[in-house]
Amino acid sequence: MRDSLALDPRSSQDSLVTNLGAGDSWWLRHQRFHHRAVFILNQTTPIRLNRHRGLVACAWQANTTSDTTSVRVDSDGNGSVIIEPTGGANQDGWVHLLTGGTNAPREEGGVTPVVPIAKGQPGYVPIGWIYRNHRSAAPNTLTGGRPIGTKGLRFQVFPFTLSGDASDRWRTESQLEAPGVVAVAWQCDLGSQAGHRVAVTLDAAGDVIFTPDSVDARTGWLWTWRRY
Fold this sequence. Notes:
The protein has one helix spanning 141-144; strands at residues 4-6, 27-29, 34-43, 47-50, 55-62, 69-73, 81-85, 91-99, 106-108, 123-125, 129-132, 146-149, 154-161, 168-170, 181-188, 198-202, 208-212, 219-226. The chain is mostly beta strands. Mean pLDDT is 78; it is low at 17-25 and 107-117.
């Protein structure tokens, strides 16, 4: 549905892509939810963000093409987010959260947030702001991007099944298939979370680049913030 997104089922086994008729998940218009982002720095093992009242969906905005990480809503029913980076690598990026509540989250597992966030330090991005993706062949949004307000940006979600290439490309800008994208994040299919880790970034032309953690097919949803 236009301007809608798939809600994360509260299970690590359920799949978002089989939601139609299977009862695993459902679709709702995203305008009804609150958005928040938190920066995660140098993670090598799974961690948890706890107590997000009304949490319904989450996605990962990679800092660089090597920051292949997946995030999901935990099945504990407490609004927790499980963040699973590719093992052994220092993963940097932003977790985007959509909630129906307004409570400030509380972190565990080694993440110490500050508000407002200091650039390069883990913590919450002020409400109403996101980091604009660095447009480059070798992007680094932390150093080459900048925070921008979401007011005036359109949030849209697109389903994708990737071919398994080392870096799939969606020619959003170079062929005007979805022009005006300024930030992107990846909501992985939960049927096999560890098998759907993807870093989504923008190249120098402004096209979306999908970089999986291994050369296998990947399924999920691309979250975009667009200016047009």
